[in-house]
């Protein structure tokens, strides 16, 4: 079973994640990282009993670190498999999605591309804002963590994959989302309303690149 966890997450969320893992594995050596630099430093401690877990953070793990790990690294993040890539919440609102959620998956070199281990979905009301969606999906991500904490903290073998669950075909880049977010005077009223609902809480996206 893992003796060391590299926990890639912002604080104070990381401390809650650590507490959930330690309930199932006393004596875990948990190394904290919230930036690429801190992750590189923590990676020096990788050995045959190290597991990497990312929680609600957008730091991309370099291939060289993934290759050094003895088993899969795992990522838990807001956003369902239907919305891989950048700004999943804003895109879900733009699409008028009625369901959203969080995902636990194995990390691969390509972002949001590894086998899916677990999902948790919820209904999206018609008047949902981006702030509401972010808060609700972060809660869903923590519930996923609690559900899988025992396996993440104690199992040597990879966690079972979720049969039949696949990533969506549209893999959004920041450039793509920026192209949708720009609100101009010549937009049809319906399209302008869609963009305001989805992107008003991300004003920097509405500036030309």
UniProtKB/TrEMBL annotation:
Domain of life: Bacteria
Matching Gene3D superfamilies: 3.40.50.12230
Domain Formyl transferase N-terminal as annotated: residue spans: 60-145
Record-given protein name: Formyl transferase N-terminal domain-containing protein
